[in-house]
Write a structure and sequence with these properties.
This protein has 25 helices and 17 strands. It is 42% helix and 16% strand.
Length: 674
């Protein structure tokens, strides 16, 4: 590994890092308990962070502001809500004597009202349709208990199936979490639901083995379905000495569930300690450094959309829920956004996601900070759904660091995410790495973009399509895209050539590279709907359709041989079928309406990034009732699946054309840097 070479600014910054201050900030926010976006407590936290920027980090108070934006949320009574977003309780009884069970909820709606609901508890296992079908009797008028997992993402399909069967509420527990910990995620508005510990779930199941168990459940939220509440972002800055209208962002959200030392109080600690060290170093950044702590990362969007988080960052750089653009003048002026979310965990595996154009730059900063030598780490593209995604949506090169891995996965969004989960050395490494990246982005003469990495991403995406579906060459016209890639490659090669780069005015070169990034970045990737959690990970725009084409054709080939089991196994690989195959068809369609078939305006940061989907649920179910037989027995299923293949090809051509147009436009912009 090469020896790091630090500038004087970087050495001064590293020497000035105050790890005790980062820890102090994390401790203070953790001690304060959960902060729900857009509530008075969030406003109080925002003011506290603002004061920290001025009084402890040493930023000029004229350069520290609170930025308001609308959110959908709760009229929250902090005195009675506990860890939930409204007055919440659960009691159980077997003999008329009621015993309270600790619980928590983030239900997107009013819930049950103060009167609550009551009914017998029915154990539905993991909540799959197979589980529902296996129970004796009906769940109508009853309360279902299930073991939640990513298989049925955050319980939404279970809620929907239970509601469709007439259940009045749901109780979830999370086997992945520590047995004594409460875990919660934002809950879809289909059925009132609370979360309990694994220990209490085992207790209830033990009682159910002996006879009926009754439950009383109250979820009394004061939910406003429209953006009537006010979120508050905190923005501190150090103005650039040469290029004040070029911006480098360092970000960490401050709202959180439970105590959330890792997610994301330590991130805010890193943010403030980096700001303090840069200010104390006396350096004069050439570009303006913006230190942003976002509100409403966890929740803030409408009830009927899956994409209800990241609202503070989305409002800042894209548009607010009421349609305003807060910083329209900054498009094309943001050099990069560096985000920190889930920071400093013990025994972590560090995931650093980036846009392709700064992947190698981030790799070098991580090496120089000593992070890669100290902990297992993976640096990859594309970005996923953290606060960096709305910036990526706006075309900005981004990086996001998460100290994750199996150890933290158990603690994520639980009552066990406390200061005991944190490691001081890890927080230091996080601050050193992200601080170095920001300083280098702010001080570089030429933006440290590696444009040729975009070529790797583009060609890999096209190769995914060709390798998974060789027939796509005959059905998808990629000639314009391939020509655009060649043109882009030629301009990138010219810019990489050192003698030529030295002849180009850096201001013009930087402007053109930012403009090209704004055109190309948002067009290369979409959301991975083949994963259990839709709308969580980004992939090439070709990945979902290529995956589905292969699965559909494998199923067709199997049916032509009369192999039903093999055909159904292939269809399980179609996007949404990882969870969809465990869901009733009507419930499945309703869930698709929640995650994919939303009207424009409700998609928020998913707008423009949803892949084409193939609904094979009915074919999958129809084959379950058919035995292995001759191909003639499956003609209707074969015909239906072939129609879906044709439809995918039809929808792929505009995607290829749009990407080709973006690559061509980006190449044309780079040519203007001559």
């Amino acid at each position: 590994m090469r020896e790091p070479v630090f500038s004087e600014d970087e050495r001064t910054f590293l020497a000035a890092l105050d790890d005790d201050y980062a820890w102090e900030v994390a401790q203070a926010l953790t001690d304060g308990g959960r902060i729900v976006g857009g509530t008075p407590k969030a406003h109080e936290a925002a003011r506290w962070i603002r004061d920290q920027f001025v009084e402890r980090a040493g930023l000029d108070p004229r350069n520290v502001v609170l930025e308001e934006f609308p959110v959908v949320g709760y009229d929250l009574n902090e005195a009675t809500a506990g860890p939930s977003v409204g007055d919440t309780s659960l009691s159980i009884s077997t003999d008329g004597v009621w015993s309270p069970i600790p619980c928590a909820q983030v239900f997107k709606g009013d819930g049950t009202g103060a009167a609550g609901v009551a009914g017998e508890i029915v154990d539905v296992g993991r909540g799959t349709r197979e589980d529902f079908r296996s129970i004796s009797g009906s769940v109508r008028g009853k309360i279902v208990l299930f073991a939640a997992s990513d298989l049925l993402f955050y319980g939404a399909p279970v809620q929907q199936m239970a509601a469709d069967r007439g259940a009045v509420a749901a109780i979830a527990h999370w086997p992945i979490a520590p047995d004594d910990a409460l875990r919660l995620h934002v809950t879809a508005p289909f059925l009132p639901m609370v979360n309990i510990t694994n220990h209490d779930a085992a207790k209830i199941r033990g009682l159910l083995a002996k006879g009926p168990v009754k439950a009383k459940l109250v979820i009394d939220n004061r939910w406003d379905g429209e953006p009537k509440h006010v979120g508050v972002n905190v923005l501190g800055s150090i103005p650039g000495s040469e290029f004040p209208d070029e911006y480098v962002y360092l970000c960490a959200h401050f709202d959180h569930w439970f105590t959330s030392a890792t997610d994301n109080n330590a991130g805010v600690g890193s943010l403030l300690s980096i700001a303090k060290a840069i200010a104390a170093s006396g350096m004069e950044p050439r570009r303006t450094i913006v230190f942003a702590s976002f509100d409403a990362e966890e929740i803030g969007g409408w009830a009927d959309t899956w994409y209800d988080w990241l609202i503070g960052a989305y409002s800042h750089v894209v548009r607010t829920l009421d349609g305003r653009e807060l910083h329209a003048d900054r498009r094309g002026k943001i050099v990069a956004m560096v985000n920190m979310d889930v920071v400093g965990t013990k025994d972590a595996e560090v995931s650093i996601e980036t846009t392709p154009d700064i992947t190698r730059f981030i790799q070098r900063a991580a090496e120089d900070a000593g992070l890669l030598a100290a902990v297992p780490a993976r640096i990859f593209w594309p970005p996923t759904s953290y606060d960096d995604w709305p910036f990526f949506q706006a075309g900005v090169p981004v990086s996001q660091t998460a100290w994750w891995g199996p150890a933290y996965e158990r603690l994520y969004h639980t009552t066990r995410d406390t200061m005991e989960t944190l490691d001081r050395r890890s927080i230091h490494l996080n601050s050193a790495f992200n601080g170095l990246a920001v300083i280098r982005l702010a001080q570089s003469t030429v933006h440290p973009y590696d444009l040729d990495e975009n070529l790797v991403a583009l060609n890999e995406g096209l190769q995914i399509l060709r390798s998974r579906d060789p027939d796509s060459r005959d059905h998808v016209d990629s000639s314009s895209l391939e020509a655009a890639i060649r043109s882009y490659a030629a301009h990138v090669a010219r810019l990489i050539a050192a003698p030529l780069r030295e002849k180009v005015d850096p201001r013009i070169l930087n402007l053109r590279m930012r403009q090209a990034a704004a055109i190309l970045n948002p067009r290369m990737f979409s959301w991975d709907f083949a994963a259990p959690l839709p709308g969580w990970a980004g992939v090439s725009v070709f990945t979902n359709p290529a995956n589905d084409l292969r699965a559909l054709k494998d199923a067709i080939a199997a049916l032509r041989l009369g192999q039903v089991a093999k055909a159904r196994e292939a269809l399980e690989g179609v996007a949404t079928m990882q969870w969809g195959r465990h869901t009733d068809y009507e419930s499945y369609r309703k869930i698709l309406g929640y995650i994919h078939r939303l009207p424009r305006g409700r998609l928020l940061w998913a707008d423009g990034f949803l892949p084409p989907l193939s609904d094979v649920h009915r074919e999958f179910d129809a084959l379950a009732s058919k035995p292995e037989s001759t191909p003639e027995s499956f003609l209707s299923e074969i015909e239906s699946l072939e129609e879906k293949v044709t439809e995918l090809y039809r929808r792929l051509n505009p995607i290829v054309a749009e990407l080709g147009g973006a690559v061509s436009d980006a190449a044309a912009v780079l040519e203007e840097s001559r």
